[in-house]
Write a structure and sequence with these properties.
Elements (H helix, E strand, L loop, with lengths): L1 H16 L1 H16 L16 H17 L16 H14 L3 H6 L8 H14 L7 H7 L8 H14 L7 H7 L8 H14 L7 H7 L8 H14 L4 H10 L8 H14 L7 H7 L8 H15 L4 H10 L8 H13 L4 H10 L8 H15 L3 H6 L8 H15 L5 H5 L3 H9 L11 E2 L5 E3 L3 E3 L7 H9 L3
Antiparallel strand pairs: 1-2, 2-3
Length: 481
């Protein structure tokens, strides 16, 4: 400290003894008293600039950006490079990625990122985790904030989290391309809570990874305001949580349907078209997409079509929807192919209508397969048309793997029975029937009841406590995913 004072005094004596040396020093002191002319070097750009120089550089850079069509207004609070050359390098780098001037204008703050210290490390990491170089421009357009991120602190932990959910390594890039905003989420926030809640209602942890790959958006949904209200509402309609969990595993996108404007509205629409409240759970389990469609328009169109072309009244149409809700999206030309085939076989229109109401799957079958089954029925089995009208499900069974083999077995045993008796049962049950000395009465199969329990023939209801797999068996019976 003493030596510093001595040097200062010596400098003062030297300056006062030489007026030429004193003049520039005084100018520096007078100017520095107004504002700090020289400050610490910029960590970002590594160029030492005074305030005046920075202001001049900002004006020059803003003029340059304006000349190429970029509006620099949002960059007022952003630290910019010291020269136009550096800014031009950034613009050209982004253009080489595939971004247009208009796209840069959508988020001009990306111009505050250094090419070498921000853009190249981030883009290199994205390419490393599976995003193809040709897709990097699209990725930046969809989520330009990624250029500000730290690879080590922000990006890598999210990728590690996704891998921990069993998202396959080769699928990481695909997931992030679909939902790049994932890279901006906090691990201990929405992502963790949404996964924990879904597991708590019965979603299998091993299925979370495939769900993320199929529909990653649920990771960004809040449990309290988005996911839980949908789950609670669907459960209130009669969907058991186990069935709902299986449905979400395979159709995670149902969580993305708007609760008020879509789900509730469509449920009310189904009821208004005659679908019974107790059948709603079965309808949704069979065709989850039905709660996300523009349903009123589709139902109106199909109901009118069924009434006009098939002579099926609104009540019959409601029963059709209950048994096969996919009908609301089925092309009318496809429907008419099966109907025309049946009419062409001499079956009266009224009987065709009854067949469709009893077994709506008829209208979705391939006509070629229906022809083969029909000709076997007429030429080989020689049964009356009335029996076919009473059991239209005949057309839904495979001719080669079920109808022919079982019919041959009946012939060899000399057994005479209805179509329902020998077709509507498992292979094991069929063998048991053949070994019996009598033909028992046909019984109905399992039915879907409120609360999700399985009602078996004989009015026995199997509870969840007796067999935990009942809901899963019900789901397999009601929906093919």
């Amino acid at each position: 400290m003493i030596s510093l004072l001595r040097r200062t005094k010596l400098l003062a004596l030297t300056l006062t003894s030489n007026p030429k040396t004193l003049r520039p020093f005084l100018r520096f002191l007078s100017s520095s008293s107004k504002f700090p002319e020289y400050e610490m070097p910029s960590v970002t750009w590594g160029v030492v600039q005074g305030r005046k120089e920075r202001l001049v550089s900002r004006v020059i850079i803003s003029d340059y950006l304006k000349t190429i069509g970029i509006i620099p207004d949002e960059l007022e609070q952003v630290e910019l490079p010291s020269t136009v050359e550096v800014m031009r390098e950034r613009v050209e780098f982004l253009q080489k990625l595939g971004l247009t001037i208009d796209q840069i204008n959508e988020y001009p703050l990306m111009l505050g990122c250094s090419v070498r210290k921000n853009m190249i490390p981030v883009l290199g990491y994205l390419e490393k985790i599976g995003i193809h170089r040709s897709k990097l421009g699209e990725f930046v357009v969809n989520y330009p904030q990624v250029l500000h991120a730290s690879v080590v602190v922000e990006l890598a932990p999210v990728v590690k989290f996704l891998r921990g959910l069993d998202v396959e390594k080769q699928d990481i890039g695909y997931v992030l391309l679909k939902y790049p905003e994932l890279l901006g989420f906090k691990l201990e926030g929405t992502m963790s809570t949404s996964v924990a809640y879904l597991v708590s209602i019965g979603v299998s942890p091993r299925d979370i990874g495939p769900m993320v790959t199929q529909y990653p958006y649920f990771l960004g949904m809040r449990v309290g305001t988005v996911i839980k209200p949908i789950v609670d509402y669907l459960v209130s309609l009669g969907l058991p949580k186990k069935v709902l969990a299986r449905m979400i595993e395979k159709r995670a996108y149902v969580l993305g349907y708007d609760f008020e404007e879509c789900i509730k509205l469509n449920v009310d629409c189904l009821i208004s078209f005659g679908i019974r409240r107790e059948a709603l759970a079965s309808v949704i389990a069979q065709f989850p997409q039905i709660i996300g469609l523009p349903l009123k328009a589709k139902l109106s169109s199909q109901q009118y079509f069924f009434n006009l072309k098939l002579k099926i009244d609104p009540d019959g149409f409601a029963r059709v929807v209950e048994k096969m809700p996919q009908i609301v999206s089925l092309n009318q030309n496809v429907i008419m192919k099966s109907v025309d085939f049946l009419l062409g076989r001499g079956i009266p229109a009224a009987d065709v209508a009854k067949m469709v109401v009893k077994c709506p799957q008829l209208v979705a079958l391939r006509v070629e397969l229906m022809k083969n089954s029909y000709y076997f029925y007429k030429s080989e089995m020689g049964r009356p048309m009335k029996e076919l009208v009473e059991f239209p499900e005949y057309f839904t069974y495979s001719l080669e793997s079920r109808i022919k083999p079982r019919y041959r077995r009946l012939q060899s045993k000399g057994v005479s029975c209805s179509l329902d008796w020998f077709l509507n049962c498992s292979d094991q049950r069929f063998e048991e029937r053949l070994q019996a000395d009598y033909i028992e009465m046909e019984t109905v199969g399992p039915s879907f009841v409120m609360g999700g329990k399985l009602e078996l023939p004989g009015n026995e209801v199997v509870s969840d406590k007796e067999d935990e797999s009942d809901d899963e068996e019900l789901y397999r019976r009601t929906v093919s995913l």
